[in-house]
Amino acid sequence: MTATKKDQSDRDAIVTDLGSTLFVEAGAGSGKTTELINRVLALLDAGVAMENIAAITFTEKAAGELKNRLREKLSRSGRHPEALDQLDGSAITTLHGFALRILSQHAIEAGLPPRIEVNPEEAFEERWEDFRSRLLSSPEQEQPLVLARILGLKMGHLRELARHFDNNWDLVDQRMGNLSTPTGPIELPDVSGFPDWFDQVAAFDLFCQDPEDKMLPKLEVIAQRAELLHGAGGNTEQIFRLLFVPGLSFTKAGRKGNWPDEDSGLPTLKDVADELRNLGDAIKELRAYVANELIRRLALVLGEFTLEAAKDRRRLGVLEYHDLLVLARNLLRHPQHGEEIRGALAERYQRLLLDEFQDTDPIQIELAKLIATPPDDHRHWSELQDEAGRLFFVGDPKQSIYRFRRADIALYTQAGQAPTIERKSLTRNFRSVEPILTWVNDLFRGFMAPPSSSRQYVQPNYQALDSVRGSPPAGPPVAVLDDVHPRESGTRGLREVEAREVAEAILAAVGEGWSVGDGKDENNEDCWRPTRLEDICILLPSRTSLPLLEEALQEHKIPYRIEAGSLIWASQAIREVMATVSALADPTDEVALLNALRSPAFGCGDDDLFTFKVTHKDQWNYMATRSKVLPEDDPVGQAMAWLASLHAEVRWLNPSQVIERIVRERRLLESSCFGRQRPRDVWRSLNLVIDQARQFEETGGRGLREFVAWVNRKIDERTRETDVILSETDDDAVRITTIHAAKGREFPIVILSGTYARSRPMSASVVWPENGGFEVRFSDLLRTREFAAYQEHEEEMELAERVRLLYVALTRAKDHLVVSAHRMAPTETSVSKPSMADMVANHATELPRAEWVSEPLPVKESDLPVMPSPSDWQSEREAFMAAASKPSTMSASRIAWTETEDIEEQLPGLDKDGPTDGDDDRSPLRKGRSGTQIGSAVHAVLQTVDLDADPDSIGPVAAAQAEAEGVSQDQSTVWALTRSALESNTLREAAGSEHWKELFVAAPVDGTVVEGYIDLLYRADEGLVVVDYKTDDIHDDETRQAKVDRYQLQVAAYSLAVEQAVGEEVARCVLVFARAGQPAEEVTFAGNELASAQQEVRARLASAAA
Fold it and tell me: Same CATH fold, 467-560+732-762+794-843 and 7-116+319-429?
């Protein structure tokens, strides 16, 4: 059996074995989505309706791709037209979307209001501020907060814990929901004996025989602290503060010969060291006790608040993503309604397909099992026996990298071992060339494996990938940038060298024309072409190395773009503009001020700053009075004046307005054209900051300082954001993104950089032991007492996920893979907590080092600036300005209004398409109605009632619309005019035909988009008919013909737009002049008359565009 056919029987089973519950392990690049689509098509062939299939994906993007590809398959094949009709409403969605469906259909049973709203994640910040305020103002928590200050437990620690509880409030409910929140002071041990104990230890200095002995300084510090402890006067809090403050050392020191020997009966050095250690151990134990009690107290307080907030969200129906999952699971477990709802869902969703199963919330498997098993079976999900074939799992445990989102590889392992499961494997990789797969397989074989056969919940066994593609004809398939840096060089030196080598690799790839895949030829063989910049993607584990990487790319003149949400905030352009924003938010922030002055917003060099500070002796404070010797044209002084001026207005401006002022007044868009970064990247970054500021305001954010704090949290939080910021399709530039954001994507050339960094624990770690309770860790000194028992396991799981993250990164490459193994010289830590670079260096069978000579990128002619002469530039500018001033869109009313200034006020029927000189900001209900209040009311009635309605029955509607327009005194007139229109021959004909009321139309006519609201369009025997209602009184009117002529142009414009939009000819246009108490007058334009009017419309469009 050849390598390309090794897994064919398993692939066949996906489409043929529909009666079995398959558990498919799909390796990277194995065509998982294709097989998922094949399974759906096979189910359709077997008679399962599309509406009875649910496919649960990890992301909305994946759900959209699955739907689009299914639509394409169904459309091309012509099979299952009913499935195509049901596709848009089908349950191909994310887990959260599926849970929302369940809750929306059973809101009452779930204890929710009928209307459910999904709230953005930013709502957490409001809750945190509320909790923080309540905590700080609570008299019951005053003593715990004092202890928190003493121990160094900060609000930032509690905020991280609050977020963790928020994301796991179901676990908080299980472990804390039945616990009462303690009140009153924390009971503390007696510490009154510590002052005397310190005295006793300090007194040992009398027995030292050498004043230079190294133990004496330690004892001197002990003596000083003893004095302070006695001075505390028995104040417990002050004693704790003195015991826990840094500066005390309890380790052994000194020389044995400088102290009495053992036979003297006096304290020896060992006695002193033992007593000192005992004192240190007592303080350490005391600190551990207080930390445990304090963290548990604050966690219970925070847990109570978290559950209270979850109940409020449920009561209001304003839910967040995790609420959807928990409430849906609880609904299916409901003691009264659960069985009925499970039965209904089982009937509706007969087949459930679970994609990316290794990375989803554990609640997913419970929901699936509850739907696929008998409704009266209430056992734990792992004991439920689902009907064979109802479930289908697909995933790759080697790519499980979302543990921070509750993804649990142990659950994946447990689900795959169920007795009803049939396991299948997809090992053929259609993405990467053979040399890449060989190197990756050699690296992870044996390295990625469970610690023991009984601990497969830590790491899966590595399943090798089989190659399908050959080797690229040009360029190294795999290259490793292997370098060990001495520790004294520091991480900055490592980053600089690594960034330079990455830039050189990019230049080599483009300069040497490395081959990348370019589809298949007629013989199904790979086609190749030379590398372009857009083929290259730099993957980063974190944002740490981004600044120096940007500098290196700019130095080598390599265009790049950042595509990950978590990286964009660390980009140079955003850091620079945020420096100015931070300086405006806090005039005392000298660091932000200096960074702002150095930024392109002000362009001050170090020489300017030196002169300002040293020569002119001025202050780093733009609110201060400037030095008298400072020249008026000093660039720093001018910058300070501008900052002071804008700061005076900040309190009245939103953050987005402040940033817009900075961008506009400091010419940041224009100045970017002359910097090292590409202008389009700077523009995109600046627009992103403004958009984010608007989102911040829309979610309740207030004030510039709060916005700066919000941005700083986004920068500082080590979250693994997966948002991908899409770029322009014509942008030939290197891409930079994170490994998490690259999941599910592929790139012709991957350069993995920043691998030297070791993972650090989150600032708040929480474990939920199987036997109940909870344990919390902020640091080794701030943790609950039992956390240590789980710490080794937590570190083991973190390391295992780090290995899988490396696997995900390496398997993104299609044609070439460049891996940075720049690392620091090994230490004990690098063995127990290796970086990705350490992993590669220690486990790869070879580290292929490619030799290349990097050349500067060739300059394209299009990149060379062509400087026109001033006169040519002026002419070109005037031409552009003239073109920009020409309307790209014209309403039908505006076309008819042209050259009618003398009778504008007499033509109210021309304004129903909106103003002619600006945007139409009317409410949706007002659009399409003509100018007078009575006319608007008549239009509204005709828009509301059926055309064949009995005119005698429309009185209440006419009265309501007259009141809405503020002309209730004229409701009889409105009724009479409406009756006149309804009784016209035109509307009677339309009532018996296919017709459309109040129809908006927009279509290009001779290069200009013509738009407007057509009162009535219907299909007559001879073709389409455009109808426009008028309430003008044209009886015995001297301007009657002028009005008719103008309205004729209006409906002629409508007819042209309709013909362009639908491709059908308009046979005639009719003006229906409603007359109170009289038959409507109907003016018809058809044949040559309509053609002549249309020609006049075209002439006016041409004139406006000239």
Answer: yes
CATH of 889-901+923-1105, one of 3.40.50.2300, 3.90.320.10, 3.40.50.720, 2.50.20.10: 3.90.320.10
State the CB neighbour count (10 A cutoff) for residue 1056: 23
Residue with tokens 């009724």: 975
pLDDT digits (tens, 9 = 90+) for 330-380: 999 999 999 999 999 999 999 999 998 888 788 888 899 899 999 999 998
* One-character DSSP codes across 789-824: HHHHHHHHHHHHHHHHHHHHHHTTEEEEEEEEEEEE
pTM, entire model: 0.75
Domains of the chain: which residue ranges?
7-116+319-429, 118-315, 467-560+732-762+794-843, 565-716, 889-901+923-1105
CA 38 – CA 21 distance, rounded (Å)? 16
> Which H or E element spans position 897?
helix 892-897
What are phi and psi for residue 771, nearest 5 degrees?
Answer: -85, 10
Q: Give how far the C-alpha of residue 7 lies from the chain's centroid of Cα atoms, to the nearest Å.
A: 36
CATH of domain 7-116+319-429: 3.40.50.300
Closest CA to 283 of 378, 146, 151: 151
Contacts within 8 Å (CB) and 24+ apart, 364-372: 364/56, 364/95, 364/325, 365/411, 365/415, 366/329, 367/95, 367/98, 367/99, 367/102, 367/325, 367/328, 367/329, 367/332, 368/56, 370/329, 370/332, 370/333, 370/342, 371/332, 371/342, 371/345, 371/346, 372/346
CA atoms within 13 Å, Cβ hemisphere of 635: 16
The DSSP letter of residue 998 is: E
Max intra-chain CA distance, the chain: 135
Domain spanning 467-560+732-762+794-843: which CATH class is it, in words? alpha beta
- pLDDT tens per residue across span 789-826: 888 888 888 888 899 999 999 999 999 999 999 998 88
CA distances from 1098 to 1009, 1046, 1104, 1105 (A): 12, 14, 10, 11
User: Among 1.20.140.10, 3.50.30.10, 1.20.120.140, 1.10.486.10, what is the CATH number of 565-716?
Assistant: 1.10.486.10
Paired sense of beta strands 515-520 and 526-530, if any: antiparallel
